[in-house]
Amino acid sequence: MKTNVPLEALTIDQSYMTFLLPFSYNHSHKKSIAEHIKQNGYTYFSLNQPNSNETDRCYGDDIKVEVQELEQYFFPYVEHKLFPSSILEKGFHRFTNVINMEYELQIREAIYSFHVRSIDIILAPFGVAFLSLRIKLGQTMELSDVLDFAQHFRAVESRLDENKGSKIIISPSAENLSIHDFIFNHLCSFLKEILLQDKKLKGYFGSLPYIEDERMFVSTFILTKEEQPITPEQLFRIGNLNGKSPEGKPFISSTNPEYIKNSLSKTLHDRWAPELYMLTTDHAFSTISNRNATELSQELGHHMGTHFYNLLLHYYYKIMLLRMSYEYSQIEWKKDAYYVKSLIKLITLFSSWYYFREISTRTEGKELSTLFRNAFNLDILYNEVSETLQQLYKSQENSRAGQVNTLLFILTIFTVVSGIYGMNLVISDWEAPSGWKNYSTYTLFEWISLITAVTGIGLSGYLIIITFGRILMQKRRSMKHTMDDE
User: Fold this and answer.
1) pLDDT exceeds cutoff 70 at 485
2) What is residue 46's predicted lDDT score, i.e. its pLDDT?
3) What does the alpha-carbon distance between residue 20 and residue 404 come to, in Å, rounded to a whole number?
4) Which residues cross the membrane (predicted)?
5) Closest CA to 366 of 74, 52, 121
6) Is the dihedral of CA 261, 266, 268, 270 positive or negative?
C-alpha cells in the first residue's frame, strides 16, 4: 500500500496492555456465579476492605493504585455503583486473580514474549460482564511490533486476514493455542459455565450478538526511549492499532496527512504534550510517553486505576445502549407484550440508575469522559434508545386502548341486551331440573336472551382465567428473564 506519510521507527522500552472482553451472564444467578468465581481462585475487590492496597500486586511491582484516588475521582453516586462493598449491593462487582505467568505469541515468523500479570472478572449490572486481562511485554520492541501484538492478541476469533497467522505458545510443553482457546480453555476454562450463549448464534460472538466484532477492547500504556519525538503519524497509528500488514510491513490506515490531523483533533488528549499523550478511539485507549520510566509511576497508577474505571463505565454504556437497540429490533409485536414491558423497564432502570453524563470530579476525568463519549458515539446511541422508549410507550398505550375498546364493545352489547330484557334472561327456566326441556318452545327473542346469558357467563369465566394465567406467567418470567432489574 502506497503512503504519502512517513512511517518513522519508534523504539518502545515498556508496554502495558489491558484487554477487555465483554460477555453476558445470567444475573439472576449472580450470587452462585460469584461463589463459582471465588472457588476458582479469585478474590472480591472492595475499597472498604482493610488490606485493599494488597491488590496492587495484580498491577505489578512498579505500579500502585491509590484507594483514595479512586474514592475522590468519581462523584459519590458513581463511586457507590463502581465499588460496592458486597455482592448483595447493586453495581460492578470485581473479582481478581494474580497470574504472573510467562507466555509467547507467535505472529508469522516473529515470536514475542509477554507476561500475564492478572485477570479481573467484573460482573456488571443487567447481565453484562467483563474479562480484564493485564499483560506486559517482556522486551524492547519497535512500535510496529507492539501494535501488531495488540492487534493480533485482541482478536478472540481470527476471521480477517490482518488478524490471522498468530498462536500462543505454552511453555514448557510447547503447546500451541489460538487466542480463543488460550482464554477459554487455558486461563479461564470455568468461564464457559458462566457465559450466556445466544441460541441463534455460535461461538463467543453469540454471547453478545449486538457487539460489532469479535475483538477485545485494548487499553495500552507505552513508554518510548527517553526524549524520543512522537509524531502525529505515530499517534494516529497507536490510536488505530496500525501495526503491520499481512505481509509483515509497517502499516498505517491513511495516506492523507490532513485526514490524520483531523482525526487526532477528535481523539487526542494532549494536555501533557509533548511528553505524554492519550488517545481514545472506538477500539483502543492509549497512553504514550517519552519521559523516564521512573517519573511515570503516578501516571501508570492513574492509567490502571481511575482512567481504567472511567473507560470501563463508558464502554459499559456503549454495550448497554447497543443491547437495547438490538432488543428493540428483535420484538415481534403480536407476541411480545411482556417483552415490550421488560424492555421499557430495562431502559428506564438503566437510565436512572447507571447512565450519568457527569461521573468525575476531576478536570482530566471530565476531559477523558468527553473523549470516551465521542469515541463510542454515546449521545447518538442514547438518542436512539430514547426514541425507542417513546415508541414502546406509544405501542403499549395503543395496545391498551385497543384492549379497552374491545372490552367496552363487548360489555356494551351485553348491557344493551340485558337492559332490553330487564335482566330477565330466561333464568327462571334454570331453577327447575326440567326447565331446559322447554328450549324447543323458545321464541326468537328468548333464544337471543339465552345465548346472551350463557355467553356472558362463559366470557366472564374466560377473562378471569386469562387474567390469573397472565399474572402467574409474568411471575415465572420475572424469575427467569435476564432483563430483570439488578
Assistant:
1) no
2) 87
3) 49
4) 338-356, 404-427, 447-473
5) 74
6) positive
pLDDT at 399 over 80: no
If you search the block for the grid coordinates 321464541, which residue do you land on? 443
* Radius of gyration from C-alpha coordinates of the chain: 30
Greater model confidence, 220 or 69: 220
> SS3 letters for the chain?
CCCCCCCCCCEEEEEEEEEEEEEECCHHHHHHHHHHHHHCCCEECCCCCCCHHHHHHHCCCCCCCCHHHHHHHECHHHHHHHCCCCCCCCCCEEEEEEEEEEEEEEECCEEEEEEEEEEEEEECHHHEEEEEEEEEECCCEEHHHHHHHHHHHCECCCCCHHHCCEEEEECCCCEEECHHHHHHHHHCCCHHHHCCCCCCCCCHHHHCCCCCCCECEEEEEEEECCCCCCCHHHHHHHHHCCCECCCCCECCCCCCHHHHHHHHHHHEECCCCCCEEEEECCCEEEEEECCCHHHCHHHHHHHHCHHHHHHHHHHHHHHHHHHHHHHHHCCCCCCCHHHHHHHHHHHHHHHHHCCCCCCECCHHHHHHHHHHHHHCCHHHHHHHHHHHHHHHHHHHHHHHHHHHHHHHHHHHHHHHHHHHCCCCCCHHHHCCCCHHHHHHHCCHHHHHHHHHHHHHHHHHHHHHHHHHHHHHHHHHHHHHCCCCCC
Q: Average of pLDDT values for 434-457? A: 67
1-29: string of b/e by CB count within 10 Å (b at 16+)? Answer: eeeebebeebebbbbbbbbbbbbbbebee
Query: What φ, ψ does residue 21 adopt, rounded to 5°?
Result: -115, 110
C-alpha cell at 132: 480484564
